[in-house]
């Protein structure tokens, strides 16, 4: 069975989309890229097999456009993209195909994602390496890429970040007695994911004490 394309109309409210009419009736709509790649034109005969291929191509195009639009907001991990496309209702096979295509075009790169995420979280959010490591794990980043992203941080950057936060928090706790002040500051920095040794050094520095004067309260960071 086949039908004839009797009209192709540009959609007024959607960019680069076209309505396809078969035998005088609206049948489906396609993206411009699908229209061009399948060489659709008025008078073409559309068999059932060709229609199925067109609809599959359209679904593939929709998944691609949806992924690119979401990537426009910020860089994503492969797991984030997989979860997003799953929520959008795309089939598992198409999702994996889209992810591989995005990777081939350089739009998905877990190593680059992990590096950028680690730098941003440390420099702009004041999160320590333990916090960052857990976040990246939840985002599906492989352990070796997580470790590499943290290794790429500049030497001393985590300690500097912890110290800057410690200075601000220390001032906020100025009405507390020193023992309570130091305890609350330690807890605050630990909750933000900084390793115990870095926390100890930051607290000692803002409190005007030598690190060796601080009690050994942290667990081994190894």
UniProtKB/TrEMBL annotation:
- Please indicate if the UniProt record lists Cytoplasm as a keyword: yes
Q: What is its main location?
A: cytoplasm
Domain RecX second three-helical: residue ranges: 109-150
InterPro entries annotated for this entry? RecX_HTH_1st, RecX_HTH_2nd, RecX_HTH_3rd, Regulatory_RecX, WH-like_DNA-bd_sf
What Pfam families does the entry give? RecX_HTH1, RecX_HTH2, RecX_HTH3
All residue ranges annotated as the RecX third three-helical domain in the record? 159-203
The record's keywords, sorted A to Z, are: Cytoplasm
Instruction: Show where the RecX first three-helical domain sits.
Output: 63-102
Task: Report the locations given in the UniProt record.
Answer: Cytoplasm
Its biological purpose is as follows:
Modulates RecA activity.
Q: Which HAMAP family match?
A: RecX
Give the record's family classification: Belongs to the RecX family.
The name this protein goes by in its record: Regulatory protein RecX
What is the gene called? recX
